[in-house]
Amino acid sequence: MKINLEEIYNLLFEYYGSQGWWPGEGIEIAIGAVLIQQTNWHNVEKAIEHLKEAGCLNVECLKKISLEKLEKLIQSSGYYKAKARTLKNLINLLIKDPQPDRNALLSIKGIGYETADSILLYWFEQPYFVIDEYSFRIFQRLGYYEGKDYLKLQRVFMEILPSDTKLYNEYHALIVEHAKKHCFKTNPRCNDCPLAKHCSYINEPNI
């Protein structure tokens, strides 16, 4: 019998403690959610620092700044041309609707479920459980889901767990921390993993 989601959360929380995610607040959360696509947080931090130095961590500046200048400021995040256009479109949406719903966010090219749900959960405190590559990897190894369908794995969490933004926030942060410290894509560190006895990877190393 596989371990349930509440037990997984408790084991991770006991091992890692509270994570206090997401970095930043307000519009910085939305910017970070766009910039983090296909890169790491260190590169995003550099881009956000450049935006901060330029006085451009706000809707007004991001609306007025030229696309070329915005591209230069966020270049460290990679795919900066596409991300700059996405940010511009996001700002236009936020000007029209300061608290957009999920469908409105998803209508913007460059914003998918993970980015939209990160904005909704961490900024607007709406109960959408964020799924990422770490989630797919860990919960495949724990026997919950074999595929790569975002909405299907999200439903696993949202149908079982209470609809609680603080819980979703902390749980996602713990998943990320666990993946970074133990559950690597290749050569995971299993010896002192808090979920080791529940994980199929140890017995089936080719998963």
Molecular structure report:
It contains eleven helices and no strands. By secondary structure, it is mostly helical. It has two domains: 86 residues, Orthogonal Bundle (Endonuclease Iii, domain 2), CATH 1.10.1670.10; 96 residues, Endonuclease III, domain 1. The protein is elongated and about 55 Å long. The two termini are 19 Å apart. The mean pLDDT is 94.
In N-to-C order, the SSE pattern is: HHHHHHHHHHH
- CATH C-level of the largest domain: Mainly Alpha
CATH level-two architecture of the largest domain:
Orthogonal Bundle
Low-pLDDT runs: none
Whole-number average pLDDT? 94
- Report the CATH topology name of the largest domain: Endonuclease III, domain 1
Number of domains: 2
Write the layout of secondary structure elements.
Blueprint: H1 5-16, H2 27-35, H3 41-53, H4 59-64, H5 67-73, H6 80-96, H7 102-106, H8 113-122, H9 133-141, H10 150-160, H11 165-181
Quick recap of the structure?
The chain is mainly α and 207 residues long.
Key features of this structure:
single chain; mainly alpha; Endonuclease Iii, domain 2; Endonuclease III, domain 1; 2 domains
